[in-house]
Specification:
Number of helices: 14
Strand content: 5-15%
CATH topology: TIM Barrel
Largest sheet: 6 strands, parallel
CATH superfamily: Aldolase class I
Bound molecules: iron/sulfur cluster
Distance between the termini: 38 Å
Strand order of the largest sheet: 2-3-4-5-6-7
CATH architecture: Alpha-Beta Barrel
Structural class: alpha/beta
Helix content: 40-55%
């Protein structure tokens, strides 16, 4: 009879690179908080150090439009939220913030928006190429589901990376939460981005109503199967102007366990300590950096716009990027880590 390994043994095997099965993932997601603290997070941290090193890579975000044509139940930007004042940043404003990011010594800009067809293919291409010319920044786009021709044009204009979370691996829950998008369409976009040579980011939300450990395990298996280069894993935070307003928020421990397992299962990926984790608890980002994360994405969106980019409530709106960066540098050094000085591309 085969002996079923203890939790400790299973974590040790995962640390050494064992391919975890669905039931093993579920078992590790079910670890008590203290076992996760003593077994799982240190193992993920060790793999992070061996596989991607001790540098924490910074990416500067510009949330350039909060207009969205979709109606995801969990998101404050959903088109049905009539109470939100909508904005679109002008190109000159976006370019000015990109220069700020470059001047702060950060090498990557993330251009993020709702799904907003106001910005035509040509407008996005123009923006990408002007940022590349002016600042030399690596451009990451996070602007939703587009056609293969759009993705190709952005790539030719100079975009190197694209973030598109798969969000939810369960087709049933996906259709419920994202009524005007399909899981198949989303996956087609992710595969197309990979084919076109982008560094691709995907990820999920932890703690959505209706989410089970089985679904979380499938999220992790999907991230691995897609061989994505970046994995964004953040907690669900209910927004008062959505149908999920009174649902309980996602919790720190399941989010950290998912993140730690993502590190153990995918080794060399870039995994951010997400803003949502920092919103859930003041030390959320630090906890994530100790459980497998190696990226932080400071928000450079001008404050007057930032307060309106309310996917979920409670984001720290007060902090000036310079103050935030100073604090972050100190925290990174305290952790015994360094701030990344190269582009932080995934090294497979
Ligand atoms: S999750 Fe994305 S696509 Fe859905 S409503 Fe929010 S911004 Fe739009």
């Amino acid at each position: 009879m085969t002996e079923y390994p203890s939790d400790r043994e299973l974590v040790r095997l995962a640390r050494e690179g064992k391919d975890l099965t669905r039931s093993e993932i579920i078992r590790l997601l079910s670890l008590s908080e203290s076992d996760a603290e003593t077994l799982l997070y240190p193992a993920a941290d060790a793999v992070r150090s061996e596989a991607v090193g001790d540098a924490v890579h910074l990416r500067g975000i510009i949330e350039f439009s909060n207009c969205c044509e979709r109606d995801c139940l969990y998101c404050g930007l959903r088109r049905s939220n009539a109470r939100l004042n909508r904005y679109r940043m002008a190109e000159a404003e976006i370019l000015a913030v990109a220069r700020q990011i470059r001047d702060a010594g950060i090498m990557t800009v993330v251009l993020q928006s709702g799904e907003d067809s106001f910005y035509s293919r040509d407008m996005i291409c123009g923006l990408v190429s002007r940022i590349r010319e002016e600042s030399g920044l690596i451009v990451t786009l996070s602007i939703g589901e587009k056609t293969p021709q759009d993705y190709q044009a952005y790539r030719e204009a100079g975009a190197d990376r694209y973030l598109l979370k798969h969000e939810i691996s369960s087709a049933m829950l996906y259709r419920l939460m994202r009524p005007d998008s399909t899981p198949g369409g989303r996956l087609r976009c992710l595969r197309e981005l990979g084919r076109q040579g982008y560094e691709v980011g995907t990820g999920n939300i932890v703690g959505l109503p209706g989410q089970t450990l089985e679904i979380l395990a499938d999220d992790l298996l999907l991230m691995k199967a897609l061989d994505a280069d970046m994995l964004g894993i953040g907690p669900f935070l209910p927004h008062p102007e959505t149908p999920l307003a009174i649902s309980p928020p996602g919790q720190m421990a399941p989010t950290l366990k998912t993140l730690a397992l993502a590190r153990l299962m995918t080794r060399t990926t870039n995994i951010p300590a997400t803003t949502a984790l920092g919103t859930l608890a003041p030390d959320g980002r630090l906890k994530a950096l100790r459980a497998g994360a190696n990226v932080v994405m400071p928000d450079f969106t001008p404050p007057s716009y930032r307060q309106l980019y309310e996917i979920y409530p409670g984001r720290n709106l007060a902090s000036d990027p310079a103050d935030f960066l100073k604090q972050l540098h100190d925290q990174i050094v305290k952790l015994g880590r360094t701030v990344g000085t190269d582009t932080g591309s995934r090294k497979k």
